[in-house]
Amino acid sequence: MVGFGLVYGGRGAVFWSSLARVASSWVISPLMGAMVSFLVYKFIRRFVYSAPNPGQAAAAAAPFAVFLGVTGISFAAFPLSEIFPLALALALACGAAGAILVDRIIRKKLGHLLVKASSTQPEPKENAIHSKNIGLLSDFAGPKGTQLEIVYGVFGYMQILSACFMSFAHGGNDVSNAIGPLAAALSILHGGASGTDIVIPLDVLAWGGFGIVAGLMMWGYRVIATIGKKITELTPTRGFAAEFAAASVVLVASKLGLPISATHTLVGAVMGVGFARGLNSVRAETVREIVVSWAVTIPAGAIFAVFYTWILTKLLSYIL
């Protein structure tokens, strides 16, 4: 957008204050993602892994997380009511319904393991003696055996929901970035007066959704491998913490109208989970490559925009 504006209108055509706000989000969003995921994972370690019965604690924590996520989405994304108290009450009701549904699914799928874990003595945790002296950026051994199976089973189901939550937030922000220039052009063609008057046809939104799904199917596996394996070692609990934290940050930014990068936020969230396990748990080389690629894409995008604008201008002047 900046490259195009510089070609057609010079420096005065670019709203530099808005650009500064967007650029600041490139730094703030991964930091926020890292901070929130760090806290979420530490919460899981404190109230699930360190509980006398980690399996039961995980089964109790899952509905609470679903309640928060569904309530947040219902309140922030869907116009349940224009009256604030009623909208909040409906959002809380949706969150409660989601929590009850997830609790029943967990009890149905993992009930036999929960009964088994409750009827046996608590399984010893490795390094239990040292767990009291851990630092904020340290890791300690968690549950083993049946307890670990329950915890991973619960958060395996939860990670499906957190992935959907992250996909929803990603569509609300990054896909909007892609559709934004097209929506502005269509608004001009239809006589729109200002950015607040932009009305986006549903077929345009559908094309944006189709594009992101097609890109995921063809090239997504490369990014999946990088984020899932090359930054830090992920488990169902760590993956859930990263996705839940990143989705929450992106959803809040979308509500505020800030065009942050969901990828930046998720990478930061994965790093935050890694830092929660210890500073050496994050692969610095991979992070360095990612940050360099972020920096390179900014001037590269501007250069390509200038080049394409020049080519299209020449072609149109020749045709017309």
UniProtKB/TrEMBL annotation:
GO cellular component: membrane
Annotated Pfam families: PHO4
Gene Ontology BP terms: phosphate ion transmembrane transport
GO molecular function: phosphate transmembrane transporter activity
Domain of life: Eukaryota
Subcellular location: Membrane
Membrane-protein topology: Multi-pass membrane protein
Keyword line: Membrane, Phosphate transport, Transmembrane, Transmembrane helix, Transport
Coiled coil: none
Protein's name in the database: Inorganic phosphate transporter 2-1, chloroplastic-like
